[in-house]
Amino acid sequence: MLTPEKKTIAVVIADKSPLIQGALANLFDNDDRFTLMATAADGERFLEAVRRMTFDIGVIGWEMPYLDGRGVLKVLAEAEGQGPRIIIYTGNTSPEVPRQVMQLGGAGFCAKSESPERLIETILAVAEGRMVFPFMDMSKASNDPFGSLTGREQELLAALSEGRTNGQIALELKISLNTVKFHLKNLYGKLSVKNRAQAVSCYLKAHRHI
User: Fold this and answer.
1) Distance between CA 208 and CA 7 in Å, rounded?
2) What is the mean pLDDT of the chain?
3) Strand partners, 89
4) 102 plus 201 within the same structural domain
5) φ and ψ of 20, to 5 deg
6) Claim: this prediction has a pTM higher than 0.90
7) For a tag site, which of 2, 125, 175, 183 has the least CB within 10 Å?
8) Do 30 and 96 belong to one domain?
């Protein structure tokens, strides 16, 4: 009697490091429980894969060019329809990252310091519908000032880090100059800084992890 063929778990990888991409591709290619659908070097290309194909799990980095893991989760949360379940796989050691991933709708978190077997276990659990995160005391308020920023404020902060002037930001975001100044004032207050130079310095320090 023939048994029905067991469905493999379709996976897409997104990581800024070619070495990580290659290592993960090799890991999945040698495990018949998985089908590697695609690899991507940044969040924008990962979202292109989401639009082009159907797959079960996305294993993505937290810090990526063009669009980071936070941005990917936000886009997927706002999209209509059911997309892949997302596992953040990162070398960022901040305890705030798993908390943010959970709050943004991620399904799992695995540190790059963990063994490959641990990542596999995380993927299998998430594919079964479970959520996998390290222990977090959710009763404690987040100490990450970036977690309190609105989406617009995060856009402005990213623009500041790229050297945009207030006028350029207003044109790009199609808002008034006064609105830019209003958001920047709130932004500076949340980050406890006095000016754009300090805000950019704060932003760059927070994104220094690999």
Assistant:
1) 39
2) 86
3) 110
4) no
5) -65, -45
6) no
7) 2
8) yes
- DSSP-assigned letter for residue 194: S
Answer yes or no: do 18 and 119 share one domain: yes
Contacts of 160 (CB under 8 A, 6+ apart): 169, 196, 199, 200, 203
Question: What is the CB neighbour count within 10 angstroms for residue 96?
Answer: 16
C-alpha dihedral sign at 49, 82, 77, 133: negative
pLDDT in tens, 60-113: 999 988 889 989 998 998 876 678 999 999 998 778 889 889 988 999 999 999
What are the C-alpha distances in Å from 90 to residues 25, 56, 59, 62, 69? Answer: 16, 19, 10, 6, 10
DSSP 163: T
Domain span at residue 36 reads 9-127
Residue 15 has pLDDT above 90, yes or no: yes
DSSP code for 26: H
Task: Calculate mean pLDDT across residues 192-198.
Answer: 87
- What mean pLDDT do residues 120-145 have? 79
Of the candidates 118, 101, 107, 4, which has an alpha carbon nearest to the alpha carbon of residue 56? 107
In total, how many domains does the chain have?
2
Pair 165, 104 in one domain: no
